[in-house]
UniProtKB/TrEMBL annotation, chain A:
Lineage of the organism: Bacteria, Pseudomonadati, Pseudomonadota, Alphaproteobacteria, Rhodobacterales
Listed name of the protein: Branched-chain amino acid ABC transporter permease
Alphabetical UniProt keywords: Cell membrane, Membrane, Transmembrane, Transmembrane helix
Entry GO CC: plasma membrane
Places the protein is found: Cell membrane
Gene Ontology MF annotations: branched-chain amino acid transmembrane transporter activity
Primary location recorded for the protein, binned into one broad class: membrane
Membrane topology value: Multi-pass membrane protein
Entry-linked PANTHER family: ABC TRANSPORTER ATP-BINDING PROTEIN, HIGH-AFFINITY BRANCHED-CHAIN AMINO ACID TRANSPORT SYSTEM PERMEASE
Organism per entry: Thalassococcus profundi
Transmembrane segments annotated in the record for this chain: 49-69, 98-116, 123-144, 199-219, 246-266, 286-305, 352-373
UniProtKB/TrEMBL annotation, chain B:
Protein's name according to its UniProt entry: Branched-chain amino acid ABC transporter permease
One Pfam family named in its UniProt record: BPD_transp_2
Residues annotated as transmembrane: 17-35, 42-61, 98-123, 190-216, 237-258, 270-298, 310-328
Protein's UniProt keywords contain Transmembrane: yes
Keywords: Amino-acid transport, Cell membrane, Membrane, Transmembrane, Transmembrane helix, Transport
Cellular component GO terms, alphabetical: plasma membrane
Matching CDD domains: TM_PBP1_LivH_like
């Protein structure tokens, strides 16, 4: 179907189903139950899941396939965001031109950055991309203020009158897709359950499914094969007379465009931008998502993005009262003790948990969640695992 | 002319910090071949060593002072630091005043212990892993260290004053024969610069003039051969990691009075220090020191009003711009050696 088959088709259908059914899957607990805080089916959060999913899918095309570790991908996200918000301010509140321009500008910017950075590889490449991203951040923060709004960033204001959308005087324009407003949602109720179906979310989800489909096609194409060759042994590839730079540059630009798409969608959902979106910790975050899910795998980045954003939301909502409720079954002294132990890791301590999780993944599970899943599967199917190992032994010698 | 001297001086203290951190980073690259993204966190830990030590020194207990009364007419209670009890009020007060320089003594063993634990506990397992993995795991470690400090000390910067003897400014202009009060430079920054020179000199002397240093240099050039000669090079490299951690820590301790320590100061310095290392040339110690001072001074020149008017925003990006140009024209950095971290 659609030019993909076998396992890829399963993975694709799985991701598509997850994305489309997310409002139901993420709200498994009734509204007023004690477990309701584990619900994640809010439009705003679900949008973040898929948008960061797109960002990570794009990053994975570069890092997962070619092994070039970019530490500056947030810059493309930021450029895309700024391009999108200007389109919405000036041309039309329809999100399509904004998103298209986001992709175009991020693509152009990544051509420049990629052309320069890709002359070096390894750690030098990481530092060059980091330098470019920090430069864009610093410029967006200071000199380019007329263009970027500096520290306050850009929002759609009352005074903005886009050319193609006629907004009544004094009303703040809202992002839409041919009249469908992004913030519209309808709420479905079954007994105590509540499911929010949000227009914006479904737009994002549709875009992500398309993006994921394209990623699969890239992974399985001869071009994807070339990128893998770059990762496994660039020297040998050069000796066979192939110039690897056009391939890596193409991969870089494609992943930059994915980042721009994610940035454009962010603006489409929540019409504002700030320079902190380009800060290097933001670049670190997407690296983290990709690694956590499993770099070089198809579904890994999507899982990683979803996992991190979910944990971020849930863990940072837990406070000491919630902890006391959880450990209420213990004797008082024990309860306080457990709360004291867990308290630094929740709420504002989310970054600590994130850092620890990240280290644990890199140390014990370099293949990320996907590898973890495979190991579990092998554990339960010991018999089959032995067959797998015998086939793995047939990999060609270096 | 005096403007130029002012900018050079201004660049020196930042340049010293860059040089010290970059020196440690390069030592780690050169010896262990590991990319340590947690080096900025070590700098930050050093600064917090100063905070902890000055707090320890000023621990106090309450004493009822019979001679004075508070506003209700009761005898007043005053806080008396333990240092006053031990050494008498005058010596005690000056010990508290000199807390930051004194905390060097405290931070050396602490930082060496941290460096040792980090190398043996974590970095050791990453020698054979790809550089990407090393970057990622140390990046994670940096986040963790940062958050631990934040949990203990909060997110706000903590003022750690320099000794009162160094709080003023030195009138460089008068000293050099310009008009007085044109070139003012805080004493503490001068101290920082000389301190950095001493530490850098110490590390170089250690590598150049001791047998241990010779073995380490030999190991940096050709680890395998040194190993074949029956020398346990890993052990020495571990010690060098601890030394590098210690250098970063000391840079942090002395920097505490210049910028009040906060939990993310390490990250701010780390990115720039990496750029410094790359500009200087991966694996080249002199290159790192030279590039550190060079970029520090360039940065302060770029923030001169005349230049900012000409090229707005240049002060924010000059370091990155220089790094990009250097990397493209001299791929090995200013003083990089052939064969060290080429890929």
């Amino acid at each position: 179907m659609l030019g993909i088959k076998g396992k890829d088709l399963t993975v694709f259908l799985l991701v598509a189903a997850l994305a489309l059914l997310a409002p139901f899957l993420l709200n498994p607990f009734p509204v007023d139950s004690a477990m309701a805080q584990f619900n994640a089916g809010y439009p705003d959060l679900m949008q973040r899941f898929v948008i960061f999913g797109i960002f990570a899918i794009g990053f994975n095309i570069l890092f997962g396939l070619t092994g070039y570790l970019s530490f500056g991908h947030a810059a493309f996200l930021g450029v895309g965001s700024y391009a999108a918000i200007w389109m919405m301010k000036l041309l039309s509140l329809n999100i399509i031109p904004g998103i298209v321009m986001a992709i175009v500008f991020a693509g152009l910017f990544s051509v420049v950055v990629g052309y320069i950075s890709l002359r070096r590889s390894g750690i030098y490449f990481s530092i060059l991309t980091l330098a470019f991203a920090q430069m864009s951040y610093a410029l967006a923060y200071s000199v380019l203020t007329p263009l970027t709004g500096g520290e306050t960033g850009l929002q759609i204001k009352q005074t903005d009158t886009p050319l193609l959308s006629n907004i009544p005087e004094g009303e703040i324009g809202r992002a839409n897709l041919f009249g469908l407003e992004m913030s519209d949602s309808s709420i479905l109720r079954f007994a105590n359950w509540e499911f929010t179906m949000n227009v914006g979310y479904y737009v994002c989800a549709a875009v992500m499914i398309v993006a994921f489909y394209l990623a699969i096609r890239i992974f399985r194409s001869p071009f994807g094969m070339m990128l893998r060759a770059v990762k496994s042994n660039q020297q040998r590839m050069n000796y066979t007379g192939l110039n690897s730079r056009p391939y890596t540059l193409a991969a870089f630009v494609i992943s930059g465009m994915y980042a721009g798409l994610a940035g454009g969608l962010m603006v489409a959902m929540d019409t504002q931008v700030g320079p902190e979106r380009m800060f290097w910790t933001a670049s670190g975050e997407v690296v983290l998502m990709t690694i956590l899910g499993g770099a070089g795998t198809l579904i890994g980045p999507v899982l990683g993005a979803g996992f991190i954003k979910y944990m971020e939301n849930i863990v940072s909502k837990i406070n000491s009262t919630v902890l006391h409720e959880w450990f209420a079954f213990l004797p008082d002294g024990m309860e306080d003790f457990m709360v004291t132990i867990f308290y630094p890791f929740v709420g504002k301590g989310w970054s600590l948990t994130l850092g620890l999780m990240f280290m644990a993944v890199v140390i014990f599970l370099p293949g990320g969640l996907v590898e973890g899943g495979q190991r579990l599967k092998r554990l339960f199917r010991r018999k089959k695992a032995e067959d797998d190992q015998s086939s793995a032994a047939k990999t060609p010698a270096e | 002319m005096d403007q130029i001297i002012v900018q050079i001086l201004n660049g020196l203290d930042k340049g010293s910090a860059y040089a010290l951190i970059a020196l440690g980073l390069t030592l780690i690259f050169g010896t262990l071949g590991v990319v340590n993204f947690a080096h900025g966190a070590l700098f930050m830990l050093g600064a917090f060593c100063a905070v902890v030590f000055s707090r320890l020194l000023s621990l106090s207990h309450e004493v009822v002072d019979e001679t004075r009364t508070d506003f209700l007419g009761n005898p007043m209670t005053v806080d008396v630091p333990y240092m006053h009890d031990i050494f008498g009020p005058e010596v005690g007060a000056s010990i508290i005043d000199w807390a930051v320089p004194l905390s060097i003594l405290f931070s050396i063993p602490v930082m060496i212990a941290i460096g040792f634990a980090m190398e043996r506990g974590l970095i050791k397992h990453f020698y054979k892993r790809p550089h990407a993995d090393q970057i990622l795991v140390t990046f994670g470690l940096a986040i963790v260290l940062q958050e631990i400090i934040k949990a203990f000390f909060g997110a706000n910067p903590i003022q750690t004053p320099a000794p009162t003897a160094f709080t003023g400014s030195f009138d460089f202009g008068a000293w050099l024969g310009f008009d007085p009060l044109t070139i003012m430079y805080p004493y503490w920054r001068l101290v920082y610069f000389f301190f950095a020179v001493v530490v850098i000199g110490g590390v170089f002397a250690f590598l150049q003039f001791t047998t241990f240093g010779m073995v380490v240099r030999a190991g940096m050039a050709d680890r395998e051969t040194v190993g074949l000669l029956g020398i346990n090079i890993d052990k020495r490299f571990t010690i060098m990691f601890a030394v590098a951690a210690c250098v970063a820590g000391l840079a942090g301790v002395m920097y505490a009075p210049i910028v009040a320590p906060n939990y993310h100061m390490g990250m701010d310095f780390l990115v720039l220090s990496f750029v410094v290392v790359v500009v200087g040339g991966m694996g080249s110690l002199t290159g790192a020191v030279f590039a550190g001072f060079l970029l520090g001074i360039l940065e302060s020149f770029a923030s001169m009003p005349a230049i900012v008017d000409l090229l707005p925003g240049i002060n924010q990006i000059v370091i990155y711009l220089v790094a990009i140009i250097i990397l493209l024209t001299r791929p090995r950095g200013l003083m990089g050696r052939k064969g060290v971290m080429e890929e």
